[in-house]
Amino acid sequence: MTSYLGDAWLVRLVFLRGLSALYLIAFISALNQFPALLGERGLLPVPDFLRGLRFRDAPSFFHWRYSDRLLRGVAWTGIALAALTLLGITERAPLVVTIAVWLVLWALYLSIVNVGQTFYGFGWESMLVEAGFFAAFLGPRTLAPPVLVIAILRWMLFRVELGAGLIKLRHDECWRNLTCLFYHYETQPLPNALSWFFHRLPKPVHRFSVFYSHLVQVLAPFGLFAPQPYASIAAALLVSQQLLLSISGNYAWLNWLTVVLGVAGFSDAFLAPLVPTAIPQRLAHVPLFDYAVYALAAVTLALSVQPALNFFSRNQLMNYSWNRLHLVNAYGAFGSITKERYEVVIEGTDDAIVSQSTEWKEYGFRAKPGDPRRRPPQVAPYHLRLDWLMWFLPFSVIVAGNRVLVRGFDVWFIRFVQRLLEGDRATLGLIRDNPFVDRPPRLIRAGYYFYRYTTPAEKRASGAWWTRTRVGEYLPPLSLADIEASFRR
After folding, report:
1. CB contact at 8 A, 268 and 11
2. Enclosing domain of residue 470
3. Residue 415 and residue 375 in one domain
4. Which of 121, 126, 439, 483 is the most buried (most CB within 10 A)?
5. Cα(301)–Cα(296) distance, integer angstroms
6. Which one-letter DSSP state was computed for residue 293?
7. Which residues lie closer than 8 Å to 486 by C-beta, 6 or more apart?
């Protein structure tokens, strides 16, 4: 089987370094954002979520107890272990240590994800958890790479890519008529500066790009199970597409994690020219560890039945876990594409009573479009969870003429407005621009805006990346007393 898959000592080295880098970013993201989003005074507090919830329904260390201090301890532990792994220190340790380090990383991040609620409800969270668990069974650099684990990682990449390809073909018609990229770069969650230029590419280029995406995501994954060098060629196609996606938008670590998984499809012969590292001539075998790998393969095979059947289902599930350990999941992304971009823009005022002379000042987010003249930033692979959740808000809105009809407000959003009215420092740390430095505003409202990219002529004339039109009111002006009264009702 080794000759079929190809030697994998370099493959293991590159995979583990790449995965540890992403775990490092994930724990830094948790350290910076979790307390404000989900902490004791967060928008969706973990203690409230865990109340009455059984451990088996959401396995997490925080069932023991939750505090922001403990969360920071978990995050710092994850940061330290991920950094040691990134530097290659743990891979020089004995087998039991390398297994323990990765299982601790997996358990710590699983504990965060399982209490993260909406803010951790993204498919790449389960991807990171699953990849971290399997990484524990790759062993240290002194051990021969277990080819069964490499095969399991290829199966994971297969599910990621084929799931994404099939969900597109089954859902939005624009994927089938090759027009989705007419809209995608403009309406994606967090565009970067290059997204504007991608959007302006000729339509035949967009059509070809969609066609190529179907070829790569639907056909190339099967090549991962071919002998070398064909598996490496298939993996290279998948990796090249992900690298292209990574420069055209901000998708947290989704693209980079897929690239790291793509490394499992390579062979050492393919990577050797790119990674000038001497490969040891003699590698150890530990029979007891081999038996553990066989057991892992058997469990993975059993857990793979439902994800495999999901590929054939007309109601294909996307980013779904059949178990609370987030192992062997179903994946997919962007089954549907929004054709127009709307944004919720939050504004505050010092006035206690709204009048025609009231001055409204706009809050600015770190990456979400706001000020049309601000250059869209590159933030990925870092994950800005609040900005992503703000992108989802317009999906619950109906525009009827000049009226904006909102089908209810998410609890986290109302609490976010409440924290802004309180001038909460932790919440303000999640955004970029706070126009009320000296004291919090008396009232906050949210407008509903239609955004579109500027044309090349408009961009040259104004320097703006976007043009926007106010459609109506998403949230009427509210005071802190108004919100506190609504929660009491």
Report:
1. yes
2. 341-488
3. yes
4. 126
5. 9
6. H
7. 414
Q: Which residues contact 453 (CB under 8 A, 6 or more apart)?
A: 186, 196, 199, 200, 465, 466, 467
Number of domains the chain contains: 2
pTM: 0.95
pLDDT 10s digits, 423-438: 999 999 999 999 999 9
Do both 348 and 233 map to the same domain? no
Tell me if 319 is assigned to some domain.
no
**Cβ atoms of 139 and 93 closer than 8 Å:** no
Cβ burial of 286 (10 Å; 0-12, 13-18, 19+) is middle
179 three-state secondary structure: coil
Q: With 70 as the cut, is the pLDDT of residue 76 above it? A: yes
231's tokens: 């598996």
As given in the structure block, the two tokens for residue 476 are 């009427």
Q: Residue 433 corresponds to which tokens in the numbers above?
A: 């621009």
* Percent share of the chain, pLDDT over 70: 98
Tokens coding 478: 């509210």
Same domain, 253 and 351: no
- Contact status, residue 453 vs residue 383, Cβ threshold 8 Å: no
Q: Report how far Cα 305 is from the mean position of its chain's Cα atoms.
A: 25
Query: What tokens appear for 272 in the block?
Result: 């050797």
Residues 296 and 349 in one domain: no
Distance CA 452, CA 466 (A): 6
Q: How far is the C-alpha of 351 from the C-alpha of 145, rounded, in Å?
A: 66
Instruction: Answer yes or no: do 301 and 374 share one domain.
Output: no
